[in-house]
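Batch manifest line 376
LIGAND: flavin-adenine dinucleotide
JOB: complex structure
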Amino acid sequence: MKHESADIVALGGGMASLSLVTALLLRGYRGKIIILEQLVASNVDKTWCFWGKGSVPRYLQSLIRKQWSRWSVSHNGREVAQSSINGRNDYCCILAEDFYHFALTLIEQNENVSFFAGQSVIDAQKQAGGVRVRSHDYDIVAQHCLDTRYQSDSSEKGLYQCFAGLWLEADQALFDPSSVELMHNLECHDGVLQFDYVLPLSSHEALFERTFFSPRPLLSEDLRRDTEQAISSRYGNIDVNIQRSEQGILPMIASASPVDRDCWHYAGITGGHMRAATGYAFVSVQRWAQVVAVSMMNNKPWPNYQPIKKRYRWMDKIFLRVLAEQMDVAPALFLRLLEKTDSGQFTRFMTEQASYLDLLAIIKSMPKRQFLNALF
Ligand SMILES: Cc1cc2nc3c(=O)[nH]c(=O)nc-3n(C[C@H](O)[C@H](O)[C@H](O)COP(=O)(O)OP(=O)(O)OC[C@H]3O[C@@H](n4cnc5c(N)ncnc54)[C@H](O)[C@@H]3O)c2cc1C
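JOB STATUS: finished
ARTIFACT:
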């Protein structure tokens, strides 16, 4: 067992930890950081999407693989679409492999940061003046602990967003590269909402995801099989090669996030940085990382900053309550949302940058009866 000391020890080396570490390093942070990651090789099978290039810091903008100016939802053959305003709120995507490459290269160039892979945290506790963390090979004392370990608790009541995505390559033009299908073919069966999410990088290459909003977590192998079936029913006999896959089971539970205490700080999904109703976390985590990095560089205490304000949590909670009680209305709700708001209002709401007038427009777009029932 090697003994180490650090200013910050990060439990988990995923998106949230690496976002903070890059934000600090690019501001010239010289403190010592140790990251403990349980996986031997980072899980790069993820694609992070968000609206508006300007929603992420400049150094991440160069990682954007593609932007789309149009997105749509559809149900029973009816499609509603929105378009961005002069490209300002385009839908953008960053591949996790590009993000990890960028962050891990930066870490390699900075001697003050160590990334220890294959190190599952066995024990982590507060002690006088900081924390003590143990993994298989390391015993670390540090001033601050950044906890990003997420443990799904399937006993929690609520919905789960479950999806399996396959990256497809076709030898003929199959996809419309100018438009993202956010929720295509929305359907509800037995209280479970289903739809396809199609992210076309070109006319020949796309990420195709079959997604479910379900009252219980679904099994990985079932998700993969459903996605394959959806692909073959949509594209028939056309030859498509599967390049790689990604999967997620995300809790749609708007519970209160854990509160940072003294030297113990939470981030990412564990820190409540993911929008319960959408599963989006990338932009809010970047916002959090910038606030923490600025504060630390100014020698101020670690701020207890929550990037998703209470008003969004409250709105997501009511929305999810409507879905949990009456999932069959969900397709109509999503169509209405895009139909009755403009793309500025919708995307500012999705990235937690909405004005009170935007929030009013979102509320007005929803049917009153179901929401009043859910509220009371
Ligand atoms: C497939 C997929 C697609 C997504 N797409 C989007 C999207 O388009 N847009 C968006 O905004 N969000 C998206 N999300 C949601 C969210 O942005 C991601 O889940 C994001 O990775 C969350 O960051 P995190 O740091 O909280 O968790 P992670 O990135 O998962 O990092 C946590 C790390 O902690 C490690 N760990 C856990 N326990 C231990 C332990 N005991 N010891 C050591 N290490 C440990 C894990 O191995 C992991 O590497 C997506 C999620 C998934 C799964």
